[in-house]
Amino acid sequence: MLLRFQVIPFRQFCLLLFSPAKMLFQRWKMLHNKRNEIETGKEPTCTIAGDKMDDSNSGNLIVGGFVVSIDQVPYQAAVLHNGTFSCGGSIIGPRWILTALHCIETMEPSEYQIVVGTDDPENGAKLQVENMFAPPFLINGSVFDIALVMLRNRLEFNEMIQCLPLLKSIEEIAVGKPVVISGFGSTEEGGYEMVLKAANINILPLEECVKAYGLLIHEHMFCAGYREGQVDTCQGDSGGPLVLDSKLAGVIFYGEGCARVHYPGVYMSVPWFYDWIVNTVRAAPSTEVLAVISLPIEHCLNPDDNNTANMVVGGFQVNIETVPYQAAIFYAGELLCGGSIIGLHWVLTSYHCVSTRIPSDYGIVVGVTNPEADGRRIQVEDFIFPAVTESDKTYDIALVKLNQSLLYGEAVQCIPLLSAYDAIGPGKPAYISGFGFTEDGGPETQLKIATIQVLPWQTCQEAYPTLMRKYLLCAGLMEGQVDACQGDSGGPLVVDGQLAGVVFFGKGCADPNHPGVYISVPNMGVVRQAGLLVVMLAAVVLQFTCAQKLKDKDWSNMIVGGMKVEIEAVPYQAALLFSKSVECGGSIIGPRWILTSRHCINQHEPVNYAFAVGSTDPYKGKIVKVEKFFVPPESSNDDRYDIALAKLAESLQYSKAVQCIPLLSSKD
């Protein structure tokens, strides 16, 4: 059930749970080393031995190769960190370098420089970096060790500086195919020699990769080298190129030692990341960049198709672990809309997706890539939406309360809400995701994501002059090609790893000059005169849900944009538990009294509830049962009276970690 205008499903690709690149790279390496120790029976080795770091990582260059000049590999770049050579890279456009994410781990452009067109990068002209981009997602703890570096100024191509076209087809990376690797790094384990070298190697079977590195190998990686060793990458050339048929096919990632027998080099597959690379370049805040990708294929970075076969039009297919906050909303058994998990019991979506307001009409599916085939439908308990929505459909936002608590895991996670509306500035990269159609009229239930950018509000107003409100925003590309489409209304738009928007609508699918329109999540909080309390409500819900501890999980994302504290700093804080799961927050206002929200207790009996006090971790705190609830009589039919008093079954014992807080009596 869609609105009368065409609804656009947004594919929110969130930087959720994104960890620093080097941490992920080192974790990958550590797991591999530990696996080796177990299989060989060796005593485990420590990362730090004595006062020295064991830094025998070998993600890098070229043992057994041959010396070349830069005009033989004019696409070769060098990445410097604070003026010191660090990694390799590949020129893929006049302002674009492709490298490994762990090579630019701080993601601070001012700390890095790029050198091109020389055999001696440490003495070459250092180019300034404008921006850096990384795919902000993980798959089962694997590393997406690839990154784009945008230069401040355009390169002038010549015999020693050329870009390298991207390989698009994964099928072309076939076993036995000859490929070329190049770089400036070490020439043997422990040896260092700043010499530009290249080497010829072959693509190896995936089984050999898995045999060497086990479950650490994923679909976005491949191996190349020789079974007998002798030729490989070594230290100093992470991020450098692997070239197949004169196209960039791989980015140097990792290898065990240098040219060791049975341990080939591991590479990130460029075709696997092709759509992300092209979409990121398209979305980059520069008119010059858009000109780059309109160049013919021989000038690199040419998205020579409209990508309409990919969903969230112009995006690429992913597994649910990439966007574990993605939810699917079913109406009468049919997939209708998308949504975002924002708490253990809560999904945020569009009002028009749940407009019947009859909970039994709907089911929610989470944690699966194909919700129509694999998902178990979770029943809905209630809906909460702004009162003004019934008269003004542009307030198209709603909270769905589930009748059971979600179990968080790799495929099910909540996403924090973005609270600062000034963080959604024009040109900001954003990510959309969803299960909807891939083109006008074309159904294809696939989970996909896409990279777009936030557009100026004035651009929205020009495209939709009678519709736009200050609490709406536009995102996409003005030339079309990338957008949400039917079937993903209510889905997420993610900025900086936080939920920034809810898919509202758009004209057609990826139509030029008609970008997608989104409900701005942070802007919802400033429309109080309309009775809109969604963000206030969500903040209460999220206090002990989206940030809830998952056994060994850190609570660092609690209260979005805030700071981690001990309970002694907020001793009046309480956690409301329903059937032993954290449901909401509360405030201690007396030895037997806690103030909370009316929607947190719904129609359930007090016997089902308890409060946890006195601990940073509510599951380890003092648990006190509830004797009775008191609510304003108006709350049964007016959401603005969303408040409740809980009387405890016993008195609290005050301490440094348990205190009441006085009530403010003056409205002034």
TrEMBL record:
InterPro entries registered for this protein in UniProt:
Peptidase_S1, Peptidase_S1_PA, Peptidase_S1_PA_chymotrypsin, Peptidase_S1A, Trypsin_dom, TRYPSIN_SER
CDD domains in alphabetical order = Tryp_SPc
Name-wise, this protein is trypsin
Give the Gene Ontology MF terms in alphabetical order. Answer: serine-type endopeptidase activity
Please list the reactions this protein catalyses. Answer: Preferential cleavage: Arg-|-Xaa, Lys-|-Xaa
Looking at the UniProt record for this protein, which Gene Ontology cellular component terms does it annotate, in alphabetical order? extracellular region
Keywords, A to Z, come to: Digestion, Disulfide bond, Hydrolase, Protease, Secreted, Serine protease, Signal, Zymogen
Q: Which domain of life does the UniProt lineage start with?
A: Eukaryota
Domain Peptidase S1 per the UniProt entry, residue ranges: 62-282, 312-561, 559-668
Localization per Swiss-Prot or TrEMBL: Secreted
Q: Name one Pfam family in it.
A: Trypsin
Coiled-coil portions: none
Q: Where is the signal peptide?
A: none
Question: What Gene Ontology terms for biological process does this UniProt record contain?
Answer: digestion; proteolysis
Q: What class of enzyme is it?
A: hydrolase
